[in-house]
Amino acid sequence: MLSRVAERVVAAPRIVLAIAVVIVALSGVYGLGAAQKMLSGGFDDPSAESSHATEVLDETFDRGGMQFVVKLDGDADITTNADAIAARDEILAILDEKSVAHGGYVQQPVLTVWNTPNLAGELLSTDKTSTQIVTSVGGGDEHAPGNAEELADVIGAQRHGVDISTGGMALVYGQISEQTSKDLAVAESIAIPISFLLLIVVFGGVVAALLPVLIGGVAIVGTLALLRLMTSVVDVSIFALNLTTAMGLALAIDYTLLIVTRYREEVGRGLDRRAAIVRTVDTAGRTVAFSAVTVALALAALAIFPMYFLRSFAYAGVGVVVVAAIAALVVTPALLMVLGDRVEALNVRRSFHRLFRLPDPVDAAATPIERTGWYRLASAVLRRAVPVAVIVPALLLVLGAPFVNLKFGFTDERVLPKDAAVHEMADELRTDFAQNSGGGVIAVVEGDVSQTGVQHYAAEVSKVDAVGAVTTPFGAFVHGNPVGPGDPSSVRDGVALLSISSEVDPMSDAGTDQIEKLRAVVTPTESTVSYTGLAAISADAVDSMFAHLPWVLIVIAVATYILLFLFTGSVLLPLKALVVNVLSLSATFGAMVWIFQDGHLGALGTTPLGYLVATMPVLMFCIAFGLSMDYEVFLLGRIREEWLASDRSKSANDHAVAVGLARTGRVVTAAALLMAIVFAGIAASEVSFMRMFGVGLTLAVLMDATVIRMFLVPAFMRLMGEWNWWAPAPLRRLHDRIGLREE
Asked: Residue-wise over 357-387: b if at least 16 C-beta within 10 A, else e?
């Protein structure tokens, strides 16, 4: 099939390029508005208990939006300060004007120390010089952050000499989205020019180096159009843009580098341009197609998770892989056919040699493979296969040891830079206030909401460790005792709300433990109770991750195993690939825990949370696993090609491994270095989990292309010998019928 595609492309390359230009232009126009359609949330499970509680709050009480906090700073006792009271009145008037009751988005209740004195622990600072006004804003992930920004602008930074600051999760999500857009521009400004300069070195010429940049642009523009289309059907996270840019450029470099390198080899063997392109697409193109399927399946597994943050990466990942592969297999051959010898124009390497009167560089295809450094390295590893196969896995396991202490948590303002306004305000709240207003929990009681039942339940809830006041429609309770009036507006249509103040950080282990204890309290007869709030949402998100993770891992492992069997005809090589990839990724995740969770190396300029944002390790695993299989396919494709042309002996296996590594060593190393540069651009992000994403994938790519492909894979294949290619007779016959093989 690939040969037929190549033949049609080389028969009319200019028509192919003209069609490609039209498609890219239309995609570019349509995809420009993609970012404005994307959302900044998506970290929670919509089917979780906390999501149900939030939905009931929204539908029944017009509550359940994202928290919005206004902090007033004055002198002495702010509760009696005339200027503070005047500022409070103006702010409350603004909140009322923007309230749901008046067609706006500010939801009830609006809590202040003046109207809710029993919450003084979380609304009034310990020295009484600061206080909070706490409410929530509606609009969901799409509109709530923008609504919060508008509200903060209207309220301003000072009134009547009283300093004012704003925060809460609504502003956090808005600032994360804004920072991500800025970081994307920074990442592109870092990755593209450096990658292009390195591509000139790798390809030896400016024209050849432009090919992967062009293909990368096609992949990015095409995927943006697909994402824009997806936003009309499903929620898509704005963070998917980072993956689109990074993967688009990285895979374009990978695939184009492989194709151009093979094309040069075929031309060096004496084939004319047309025959060389067809042969290249039939061999290297087959590897590209298979690699694309493998990477796409690893990323598609993210769609199993219910969080649209992760699902978005499945959409973006599969889209960019497919577009990059199609562009590499169709547009690159057309460009090679049109350019002809001009692809070697502006050859910097040749000009350098002429400038300094050095001998012209010998073309790689003309150099006996046994004389190359890559072949000598492979031979050295094969001679020392046993110590390499023991020492390298042991080292990887040691590096991965911190991974056993991995903890998952939820996103909060600390993922932003320390000088971000919402981060600074939240730090002040943690330091100056006895309780965290963001740590409040809401219990939604449905069914029997009689006064007796609700009061008894609230009294029991108030006895849970580190719980402050519990406010119900029928009174407030502390430590099991009634302490004051309740909120009559919090009961409606068979639903009652319990507002529970907490003395613990909702994102800490103590916050998770407290939610478990609250949920363990016996519910009123003929009633159901669901909890929401940061602690509940975080706990539910982590539980959902662990519930779905086994299925994701099974799908990836089974799909990868089947595909590698179809590619190699072996039942052992796919198993080997899974084992070495897990070893490699364990070391990478060990480093992520050690740096970003435990805070070593200054957490690379971020704020260590004591946990990793739950969605990121899973996302990194799927991407890194797919990319590692990308290089695995590159290497196995050349090894298998040599094996099939041999006498199938043990020495032939060793020779095939050495030749395969020698043939792909330069390509894989260059591709990995270029891909690392792309991900290093993301590591410049000011959002901590995106910085971890960039650093982690940079380490994973470099480790896989060096330690794994150069040392561990050849050592294992040497020890396995002819068993590398073994399969039971029935499976051999199956592979002969449906396997992917050279014609």
From this structure: eeeeeeeeeeeeeeebebbebbbebbeebee
> Taking a C-beta distance cutoff of 8 angstroms, is the pair 476, 482 a contact?
yes
Q: Which residues make Cβ contacts (< 8 Å) with residue 686, sequence separation at least 6?
A: 179, 182, 183, 416, 417
Q: What is the pLDDT of residues 116-144, one digit of tens each?
A: 887 788 888 989 999 999 998 988 877 88
Which of 118-127, 153-162, 303-312 has the weakest average pLDDT?
118-127
Asked if 432 contacts 126 with a C-beta cutoff of 8 angstroms, the reply is yes
Q: How far apart are CA 608 and CA 404, in angstroms?
A: 17
CA distances from 309 to 185, 237, 279, 610 (A): 21, 5, 41, 22
Q: What's the pTM value of the predicted model, to 2 decimals? A: 0.84
Lowest-confidence segment of 16-30, 121-135, 482-496, 626-640 by average pLDDT: 626-640
Nearest C-alpha neighbor of 724 from the set 645, 663, 640, 661: 640
Mean local confidence (pLDDT), 297-314: 91
Vertex 501 angle, CA 498 and 505, to 5°:
130
In angstroms, the CA 106 to CA 92 distance is: 11
Residue 265 has pLDDT above 90, yes or no: no
CA distance 533 to 547: 21
Number of helices (H), then strands (E), belonging to the chain: the values are 26, 14
